[in-house]
Amino acid sequence: MSGLPKCPKCGSEFTYEDGSNYVCPECAHEWSKDAPAEAGEQAKVFKDAFGNVLVDGDTVTVIKDLKIKGSSSVVKVGTKVKNIRLIDGDHDIDCKIDGIGAMQLKTEFVKKA
């Protein structure tokens, strides 16, 4: 292309200028021309219900009974969930719970163990 930077979100080479911004036509991401190219997006900080920072691999404890959608099962208060994986989205935690299986939880319903 003509020396325009790649999209910091998806890596597309097809960016274009729009006023004082760059725009990616593939993912619709816009960023300022003044922003450094290597800065990219700031990493999201995941915090539990009490403000403790969570990272991948942590063990957390459920602080509220959680009904499982589409099932009559419930994740009980005090259930320990080991080796969590943090993801972007409405539900921040991807995990496996013994006796229930794979599921996603919100960080607001857990505390760091």
Automatic annotation (TrEMBL):
Keywords (A to Z) from UniProt: Hydrolase
Signal peptide range in chain numbering: none
Keyword Hydrolase appears in the UniProt entry: yes
InterPro entries attached to this UniProt entry: YjdM, YjdM_C, YjdM_N
Gene Ontology MF: a single term: hydrolase activity
Record has Zinc as a keyword: no
Protein YjdM N-terminal domain ranges (all copies): 4-32
Residue ranges of every copy of the Protein YjdM C-terminal domain listed in the record: 47-113
Assigned protein family: Belongs to the YjdM family.
PANTHER family: PROTEIN YJDM (PTHR30305:SF3), PROTEIN YJDM-RELATED (PTHR30305)
Record protein name field: Protein YjdM
Biological source species: Ferrigenium kumadai
